[in-house]
Structures are given as structure tokens and as C-alpha cells.
């Protein structure tokens, strides 16, 4: 077909690497089974939220899977988003730490790196030194959602989270 041949030069090529969004099969497969079904549901919500945020702001992003983390295939990315990527192997964490040491920007949320790749819970976040944090406890969102009419609980939620002043972002 002549029309398809005209467009051939525009097909293929390499992705522009800017933001890498980690979607982890280890987390999908093992995190929810060890932590309960709500954890797996929350992981899905976090991935949907990240995708919505990046799309709404027209930020270039690519999906990064577990094997890319394991093999250290992170060059070219300016930022890496680990949105509640609970299950990470030691090798993946080492590669992320090396990538950050070379200038990469890491964004990690909730229980990222609290479990190994098979879903066994660690005593502390695997990336605790890199992130400068330590695990204390996990707070379930439902604790606040069920009693959201209580101003005290809303105030606590605001203290524990990034509460943006734009009302359209705080549904």
C-alpha cells in the first residue's frame, strides 16, 4: 500500500526517556497476597493516579518493568517513580541507588521497598538510607476516609500528606 509506505519513515525509533514509571510484576503478584487484598487494590489505585497526573501535565514517561530495574537499564531517565512499589529485590535496589548516585531523581511512595521480590516483609525500607527514612507503621487510607467529617481527622490527614492548595486536586 502506497499510503503505508509514505508513513514508513515516521514509524519505529526509540522512546524518549524522561520519567520512568515502575510497574512491578513482583509487587502485583506478591504484595497483595502477603499484605491483604486491600494492598493490591491500593497498588492499582496508585498506578492509576500516577498515570493520570503525568498525562494531565503532558509529561513524557515510559513504563519500567522489574527486569529493567534488575538489569540496571535506567540510563537516560531524569526521574524514576516508584509508586508504592512494595516488592523490590536487592539487585534492583542496588541499581536504583547507583542510578541516583549518577544524578537521577527518585520519587518513592508509601511502602516502596518494604518487601523483597517475593513479598517477604523487611524490618525497614530497603531504600531507607537512600530515602533518608525509616519504617514506623503503615496508615490505611480508610481510617480517615470513613470518618472524614471529623475535622480532627482531616487535620491529621493534611499533616501526614502533601495537601495541595488547588481544590481541583483534592477530591
Describe this structure as you would to a colleague:
With 171 residues, the protein is an alpha/beta fold. The protein has 8 helices and 4 strands, in the order αβααβαβαβααα. A 4-stranded parallel β-sheet has the order 2-1-3-4. Strand 3, helix 5 (90-101) and strand 4 (105-109) form a beta-alpha-beta unit. Helix 2 (25-35) runs antiparallel to helix 3. The protein is globular. The N and C termini lie far apart (49 Å). Mean pLDDT is 81; it is low at 143-148.
What's a concise summary of this model?
43% of the residues lie in helices and 11% in strands.
Major sheet: size, sense and barrel closure? 4 strands, parallel
Estimate the helix proportion, in percent.
Answer: 40-55%
Structural class: alpha/beta
Contiguous low-pLDDT stretches (5 residues minimum) are 143-148
List keywords for this structure.
171 residues; alpha/beta; 8 helices; 43% helix; 11% strand; globular
